[in-house]
Amino acid sequence: MVVKVLTFYRRNPNISKEEFSRLWREVGRICQTSEDIQALMYRYIQHELQPAGNEYSESSASEAGATTIGYDAMAEVWFYSQEAEAAVRETKTFKEKLWPLEVQMIDWSEATPTMIDTQFVQIVGPGG
Known about the structure:
globular, alpha+beta, 4-stranded antiparallel beta sheet
């Protein structure tokens, strides 16, 4: 069983877009290199989104017949189990490195949408 968590984030308005981007990439680097986090995660994918009001995102959405959602980033995390998903927040890396970055970079004044999907069957194509 794989537990997939998708979370959308808005940038803290007290930091620049450039600083948010730098911190966001640092979160990815920490997840990629920390053994205690890697032991619990099957896959971690970062998306830095184009926020609403951005000329590129507005025109691309319009061409596709869609609208922008107004978030700056999205994380897609695959955990080995529900227990692993809960255990991440108890790791030393999360408490000492990831949470302090999240507090600094994310706008917590609004709810951060999170979707959780439990997958029991996966079909993997030729590319893995």
